[in-house]
Amino acid sequence: MSPFERDPFARFRNATRARIGLGRAGDALPTSAILDFQLAHARARDAVHGHVDFVALAKQLAPVPTVRIRSRAKDRTIYLARPDLGRQTNAADLPSSGDRYDIAFIIADGLSASAVEHHAVPLFKACMKRLGGFSVAPVILGEQARVAFGDEAAAAFGAEVAIVLIGERPGLSVPDSLGAYITFRPQSGRRDSERNCISNIHADGLSYEVAADKIVWIVREALRLQLTGVDLKENAEGAIEALPHQEA
């Protein structure tokens, strides 16, 4: 008897990380499946409650200059309980220079410290290889930060486009997935519909090279068409389609 005949779900498990056909021991799951689930749950909790080592991150980015900016959430407990505070910058940390840039990168801890520590720097470097000719602000390191935090932070540098690299909410199959959010003319009050998102950047998902291609592609079109969000669509042929803008 072949392995597939003994276990008809085996072929599906080879194609997905989803938990399917786990079997049973009496009226419960097998011990191995229960232990695997508990380990995945623990890794997800660790990712959410973890703290990014921003000092080490700045050293990895050197000689690229960095600026560390905190949100209004004073600690991780407040950050998780008050998403609104994670969207706002601590005004005392914002720079006062009058410089202007095409692009500002914001590396924010988000909901997965492990995602940021594993993937943010390689993805940033892959993007920079493709961004010749654009002026890029010092990298903003956002502590206790959510996506909208990048709007105020990038606006302080006069950036035309904000690229937020942030730890995504961990699941039970991937605890370290990174997301990239691109916003044209970032400013306080931007809606999520005014952003483009590239998600699932991790070892078993989107590679750094492919993600960087997509991010830079959207950035170039955002600057050309002066928009991002639902009005900016990526099609299968590798072109960007701009739809007529409609006010909400």
TrEMBL record:
Cofactor note (record): Binds between the large and small subunits.
Functional pathway: Amine and polyamine degradation; ethanolamine degradation
Reaction equation(s) it catalyzes: ethanolamine = acetaldehyde + NH4(+)
Compartments (UniProt record): Bacterial microcompartment
Cofactor: adenosylcob(III)alamin
UniProt: adenosylcob(III)alamin binding residues: 147, 168, 197
EC number: 4.3.1.7
Record flagged with keyword RNA-binding: no
Main location class: other
Signal peptide feature range: none
Keywords: Bacterial microcompartment, Cobalamin, Cobalt, Lyase
Annotated InterPro entries: EutC, EutC_C, EutC_N
GO molecular function per UniProt: ethanolamine ammonia-lyase activity
Keyword Lyase assigned: yes
A Pfam entry, by short name: EutC
Chain segments annotated as transmembrane: none
Domain of life: Bacteria
Record-linked HAMAP family: EutC
Binding partners and assembly: The basic unit is a heterodimer which dimerizes to form tetramers. The heterotetramers trimerize; 6 large subunits form a core ring with 6 small subunits projecting outwards.
Function: Catalyzes the deamination of various vicinal amino-alcohols to oxo compounds. Allows this organism to utilize ethanolamine as the sole source of nitrogen and carbon in the presence of external vitamin B12.
NCBIfam families in the cross-refs: PRK05465.1
Family: Belongs to the EutC family.
Protein name: Ethanolamine ammonia-lyase small subunit
Organism: Rhizobium indigoferae
